[in-house]
Each structure stands twice: as C-alpha cells, then as structure tokens.
C-alpha cells in the first residue's frame, strides 16, 4: 500500500473512532431483516425495508454516529425524498460502509463450525462498492464455544479469512472492520469466554501481521467478554468490563485505533450499560489504548422498529421512531465516553422529547 493510500485510510479510521461516536450496523441481510419485519406484522419487501431503514439514515444521528454499515441493497437506494441514502448519511458527516461477506458456510471436518463465504469475488465487489460511495466495510466470522469448540482449525481458518479480507479491502481503498464474533449461545462461564476470546484475537492479529494489513487503518468488532446466555452464573457489568479489558490488553496492539463492540444478543439496555462500564473502568485504570465504542445492530434498532410500526398503525405520533433512533444512539455515544446515566431510552415512556432528554450527554450537540 502506497503512503498516500495508507494515510487516507487512516484518516477514515480516525473519523470512525471519533470520541463520543459509534457505528450503526444496519447491514442485516434480506432474510434476517425479513424475520424482524414479519414478526412485527410487516411484509418483507424492498419498499418496506427501505422505508424502515430511512428512519435511521434521516434521523439526525450524526452527533452520535460516525459510520453506518449498509447492506448491498441499501447502498443503491434513495430516500422518500429521492436523495441517495449515501448522501443522506454524508450530509450528517456519517461515513457509509458496506457488509461484504456472503454469510457463513459449514467448515469441512468441523461439525457445527463455520467459515465465511465471499473471498473469491471480494476484490471486484469492493471496488464496485467504493465507486458507489462506501468508505469502509465489514466481514464477520462466527465461532461457537462448546465442549470441544472452537477447534484450532476453525480459529485458524477464520483468522486467515479475516486477514485476507482486510488486505483486499485496504487495497480497494476501504477501511476493514474485522469481526471475529464469539457467539453468546451456550452455558460457558466468563473464564471460558476469556480464554477463547484471547486465543481467537491473538490468532486474528497474527494473521493481520502476516498479510501486511495496516493496523492503523483497521478496526476490530468483537463481542464483549461475558458468560454464555445459558450460563447459570451471570456476570456483573463490572466483571464484564474487567474481563474484556484484560483480554484486549493481552491481545490487541495499540496501533489498532478502535474496538467497536457488537451487541450480539444483548438487550438494548444491557449493551449500553456494559459499554459504559468498560469505558469507566478503562478511564480509571488509564488503559484506554483504543477507542472503545460500539457497532450495534439490534441494540440500536429494536425499540425504533416497535415505534415505527406503531406510527404506521396510527398508534404513535409521527416522528417518534426517529426520535428514539437519535436518543438510543446518543445514549451509546455517552457510554463510549463512560458518561452514561439512566434511564435508558428504550424504557423511557412519555414526557419530554427523547432527543432533548439525552442531548445533555454530549457537550458538542
């Protein structure tokens, strides 16, 4: 990579990790978002999907959101005002991103484990997405904790694929978000989560080095270190914060500018509280070597979808869903600075404007 190209990508990475901002992960595939829409009583068609996503892209989220990951369908769509979604975002200083992997596939010889599809066509697609206005991209690997998983083969294959993807993305002038997700499904405890996370992250970083990926133009999107969803022993936000920071310190070079956590099945409130605890502890311990922020999907969207459906049915005031989108983004922006205070927007009802309620958490809004 030429020095000029590297400098440009690092500038994008710096914008994505700006203090007090995070990333909206609105890159659900047609099938995934369809399940949520159908559960809410809506049809899964392009017009409905576009109208729903417009609630976020035109909600005035630029005060709290630095980038939005789009699905390939959305990257080419226009708003109801016939403004390209890419322009809706950039006018708010929100960088458009794109999901580039093609989903999971069974990993040969490893029952129940997966690798990720899409490397064969990745370069051509990345170049096309860049021409459409994307500035960064995301590739997801998923590893499951069980009695004998993840296997060493699964760890190695997924780490290598993530590094290959990152190198291709940077060659196509896109900042890569590397997502080695440790699935929350299972009954493992926080110690097992720590051990597996450390092994997975170390393998990923090693492969990034081997593939000559510019770490200063790369972001990491992991799950916070916590017990599995079915574990008998739960962990406090403080325990999650300590375990997560311990693993990051052991594995992630300070050259990587940002760790943008995924919410991975957490509730909206849990995701915010855990993120806030991580940042509070990092500040206390003077160990905030990276931006510690968010790249949430459902944890930024669940309440917005409910309100949007209510608006369509005439059971909520027009604009309330956009207000909620802005408020939840602001709550997580505050958490990324260790400045969150409750109650969470998702459990607030009535009263003052949600946007005004959470405006005070950011001094520059």
UniProtKB/TrEMBL annotation:
InterPro entries: Aldolase_TIM, FBA_I. Keywords: Glycolysis, Lyase. The keyword Repeat does not apply. Pfam families: Glycolytic. Its EC number is 4.1.2.13. It comes from the Eukaryota. Pathway: Carbohydrate degradation; glycolysis; D-glyceraldehyde 3-phosphate and glycerone phosphate from D-glucose: step 4/4. The keyword Lyase applies. It catalyses: beta-D-fructose 1,6-bisphosphate = D-glyceraldehyde 3-phosphate + dihydroxyacetone phosphate. It is an enzyme of class 4 (lyase). Belongs to the class I fructose-bisphosphate aldolase family. This is fructose-bisphosphate aldolase.
